[in-house]
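How a chain folds remains the central question behind the approach discussed here. No coordinates are needed to read the tokens, only the vocabulary itself. For completeness, the protein is quoted in full, as a sequence line and a line of structure tokens:
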Amino acid sequence: MFDATTNGAEAMLRALHEHSSDESMDRIAAFIHPEAEMRLLVSFGQPLRGRAAIVDALEKGREAAIYRARVHRFEWLDEHTLLTFAFARYALEGGGFAEGNVYWLDELHEGVIWRVTVFRSEEEARRAYEDRLEERAR
């Protein structure tokens, strides 16, 4: 749909979303913009800012140990934004864990992953994308 970087972008996002706490984060860290902002399952949707904070959350703690995801597909929404569809197991704040479909709104900047927000419904993710488009238009 876009250019030759499409497969590279999807591979970076797959590596980020399907990571496990027992693999080296060096490769994944290289895919993350130094000033990235992410709301991930391992942070219970709370914002993480900067590569170091994101990598730390991905590899440490109960949340990282429980986390598992399998990406099913990507949908390019524009030349910098993808909607990622997956099934994940993730820790709950109050203890225990949940499993189910999850959706990430992923944004690329300067050839790497810049912003990521997790949603539990496709509709919420699409609404957030539309809101971002409206903000840019102002």
